[in-house]
Structures are given as C-alpha cells and as structure tokens.
Amino acid sequence: SYIFVTARRWKNKEKWIEEKRQDGIWKDVRVYDADDLAAWLEQAPAVHLWLSILIGKHPGSARDIESFWETWSEATDPALNPDLVTSGREDAVSKIHQWLYKAPSALGVQADTQDEVIAFFAAALLQMSEEKREQTLARGIVVEDAVAWRQLILNDNPLILIPAFSERSEVAYAATKGHHVLIPLDRSEPPMGETISLPRLRRAEVEKVLVAIGIPEDRARDLAALARRSLRALRRKLAGHPAALTPEWAKPEVARSLLPALLAGQWNDNNAADREVIERLAGREYFEVREMLVRWAHKPDPPVRLIGDIWTVAAREDAWQLLARYLTNDDLERFETAVLDVLGELEPRYDLPAGERWLANIYGNALKHSEHLRKGLAETLTLMGAYSDQCPLSDVRTGQEWATRIVHKLLLDQATDWRLWASLSLLLPLLAEAAPEIFLDAVERELSVPNPSLVNLFTDAESHFLESSPHIGLLWALEVLAWSPDYLSRSALLLAKLARLDPGGRSANRPIHSLRGIFLYWYPCTTADLEQRLRVIDTLRKREPQVAWDLLAGLLPHTHNVAHSTAEPKWRDWVTDRGFVTPRERYRTIVEIVHRVLEDVGTDGDRWYTLIEALDQLPKTEFDTIVDRLLRLNLDSLPQPDRLQIWDALRNLISVSYTHLTLPTKA
Questions:
Q1: Side-chain half-sphere of 415: how many Cα atoms within 13 Å?
Q2: Which of 326, 492, 295 is nearest to 395 (CA)?
Q3: What pTM does this model have?
Q4: Is 22 left (phi over 0), alpha (psi -120 to 50) or beta?
Q5: I need a surface site. Which of 48, 169, 360, 425 has the fewest CB within 10 A?
Q6: For residue 658, is pLDDT > 50?
C-alpha cells in the first residue's frame, strides 16, 4: 500500500486517490492531510500531547507518559533506565501489566513521591513487548490540573489517566467513563481502594544497572545504597544540573519557614494541643504558619499536604535531606521540649482496669495530642539518627547526638512508670531506631530489677479482645534492632528475658516467637551471618537456658514450617537485599542446631519427646546420631514419667514412618 501524508489541506485528494488506485500498481492508496491528522489527534489525546511537545508547543496542563519519562530520566548524568526503577519490583510490574488488560478501574500505587510512582509506571510500560508498549503509551496521559482532567475524561476513546494534582474528588469518576486511572500516592497519603505499595529498590540489582550504564563499580556500590534509601536522593546526586532538581521550597529564602512542619512531621489541624505545639516550634501564631503552609500545599511538588484535617510532610526522607541543614540550636531545643512534653504524656486508659481500657475513648480518657503528632515527632527523631552522616545540622551536635540525648531524657529520665512505656507502645520501634544504644540501655535497666515493671505491658490475658496489648510495641522494637549485627546479641537476650517473664495471653505476638523469627535458619530476620547467630544462641543457652531450649526446639525442622517476617526498620539501612539461604548453609545450620540440642537434652522426657518428633525431618546423619544417642541412654536411671514420654514419642514416630527402628527393650 502507498500512503501519502501531508500537513497541508488537499482539496482534491479523493480524486487523486481513485486515479492511482486504478493504475493497479499498489494494493491500496491512501492520503492523510491536515484535516485527517487533526481529527486523529482529537481522538488520541496522548499522541496529541506527544506531538505538541515534539514541535515545541508544550501544553502546561498535561503530557504523555513517554515525554514524562524522558524529562524525568534524562535529568541525571548518566540518564536512568527503566531497569533501575523496577529493580526488585517485578511483582508490582506484573500487577500493573495485568491491571491494564482488565476492565477500567482506579488503582493506587504508593512510593516515596508521586514522581517516583509515575516514573515506575512509565518504566513498567517501557518493558512491554514493542507492540503492546506502543499501544499502551499511545493512551497514557499525566494530567496536572483538574480542568484538563474534566476535559480528558469526556474523551470517547479509553485512556490511561494519571492525576498529578492534589484535588482528587473527581478521580474515581473517570473509571466509570471507561478509562484506567492510576493514582500516584506518596508515603504520607492513605491507600485509595486497591493500592500497590512499591518496595524499596534492591541494592544489588541497582548496582548492576548503574555499572551497566557506565558508572565505576566503587561509586555504583555507594550510589546503590543511596538509591535503596531514596530514589529521589539518587537523582539529585546524579543530577546534570542539581539546581533543576532542587524544589523552590528548599531554597534558603523559603526553607526556614517550613522547619516547624519538618520537625512535627504530621499533626491534626483541629486539635488545639497540636496547634499549640506547632506555635512553639515556629515561635509565632498558628494562623500565620497555616496560611504559609496552605500556600505551599497548592504548589507543584508540594512539601506539605492537607488531607482532611491532617497536615503531613509530603516526603519525609526527602524533605529532611533538603531542609535539615537549616535547623539551628534554638530550633532543636524547642523540638526537644516538644518531644518530651508530647511523648512524655501518660495515656489515661492505663489508669483503668485492664478489662475496661477499651472503653477509654467512650469515657473521654484520651491523650491531649493526636496520634499523628506523636508519630510525627517520633519519626523526626528516627530521621535525625538515621541520616546523621548524610544530613549535617548547622548545630555543633550531630543529628544522632540530638536523637540520643532526647531519647535518653524520655526513656531513662522520664520513664519511671510502666504506663509511659505502655503509652509509647506503638512508637517504641521508632525510638529504638532513633537511638539504639539508649533504647537497649533503658530496657536492660527495666528488666534488671527483681520485679520488672515491664511485665505489666503483657495485658492480653485479661484485657478485652478489642484492646491490643502494649507489649507488642516492645517486641517490635527489639525485632527492629535485631536486624543489625551490632545489636542482635543485646536484643536477643532482652527478648529471652521477656520470654521467661511472659505470663501468656491471647496474642500470637510472644517474645519466643520473635526470637524464632529472628533465628529461623531458612528465613533469618537479621543480617548477622551464621557464625554470629550461633554465638548469640550459645550466649542465650548460658544466660537463659530454658528459653534457649524452647528456641532451639522451635528451630528444628518440622513439616509445614511457616515463616513470618519480623518488624523492620523504617529509615535505617539494616535490612539489606535478602536472598535465598543456600542449601549448604541450611544443612550446616541444622547440624549446628542438632548438636546444641543433643548437648542440652539431658534425660528430660519432655525434651526427648520434642527431639524425637523432629527425627523424620532431619538429614540421615543427624537422624543416626540422635538414634545412637537414644539407644545408649541408661533407661533404668530415668524416672518412670520420662521413660514413658520417650516411649510414646518413639511409638508415634514408628507408626508414622520408621518401621525399621530398633527400640530400647526397657521402658
């Protein structure tokens, strides 16, 4: 076929087409002139935007996805490629591809920033086959204001629309008009319907991509670590023109006005106590602060957002890296006072009997400050500690020194009552991450006395089923610290002490389960290597022998073993890329566990019962070792109950599998 395209109008094109068709040279002859092109572009708005940008007539309210990707990726030197943005996110890419071929609907995707979501979506499309990629890109539009949105949703052809503006009241309506709607969410925003949360990038894979695009290996390793923490931080590091990636609100003339919001993190606009804290942090009236924040919340790439009644910093990690250097000693002292005041408040519910605490809100027994402000202040402490090296303050003290000082005052000076630990329950993981050494010191102090008050945190045996037990936050905090090889030993020992003191309850969150999750040989929740993990287990065997036995028993292989990941740090880079445990390491770990179990089993019938139950799951060498040890037992020296337990265990084992086993003749 012969196709003729012109950007001019052709008055007699139909006559010319017919004449050429009659020549019989071509299968078909077609002509597209300016009128045809205009009609086509009206029906294909994504292509219309692409062409407009290509010829230098950029529309300010929308752009096609491919143009967005080019602008976003080429802001760095070298330019980023799709593989980097999707590394470690293959499951999310697959879900995106599946969603595109389902009936039109709205889908939320959440990452550190909205730009990262859109870039990820573009990268996911660019990894499609050529035919599918072209078809999909031709439908995709990033919409930057509500006016353009209202126009585009009226288009008869199905589009893929991405709302890059804050007012989203009309977003879901587009799906009813036959369009796919991808909603980009930053971490501060709540999920909207079905939402995919993008995991952090995988360091090892990012490093490979960076090397492939020409970055030396040593530098690629450091940049990959930065990318895992923040993709936006990586882009700024590689920016060809750094000023172009620095938002207006991070410039010196504006930055200081945003510091109260940076320190608070989030708060309730309708809570009088929250507003008072913001006034103290700002040193001026709340209405002045609010007026300034409202103005910035409606700018492109806003530093803050108002969602309902909740003010929140849009991308906490990014904002901290950009603004923390403007903090002065006076700012930080005001922040310290605010933290000790807000987080030092005792929750009135803990003055009630355990069975009535779930009624606290009905009785009006609530904290003065909102949970949003409490969490926001705790997160700021964590950012101070986690980014101390990357984000120097203008004060002589480092961020880690400030975090350590404040957590010390809160947990070692003020926390003389178990009720404060209970009041801080859900914030304890953040406080532990902010100042690990101080947190461990505080827990050790509380557990070193004859009658530890922290036992009062275990309330799930007597509280109402709707009431969560505050001990869970303490377990999560110790699980977070156990990810670091530097804190594994102390965290494990404290969990072992808590396991010994645990009175039991309804919750599945028990200290012994936390320990098992940390040391599970085929899915360990720590970055400590096997040698260090075994040394810590040996320490537990000396210091807390019964708990150590329970742990070893839980680590023995069992049919239908299940693993649950423990709590992970939010900002510290302690959880490196988790790979599969090799068969060699799994086997060696089983050998080491069996060796320790045999050392500790003694002549206790209960312990032998546990060990015999696991026999049919063990490698043959370890199976034979245990059977040999069992056959050499002096059964006459064992109490009758212990002999009977061993006999029952062996009988059960034989009935299930091993009919050839030679049994002791005396029982």
A1: 27
A2: 326
A3: 0.77
A4: alpha
A5: 169
A6: no
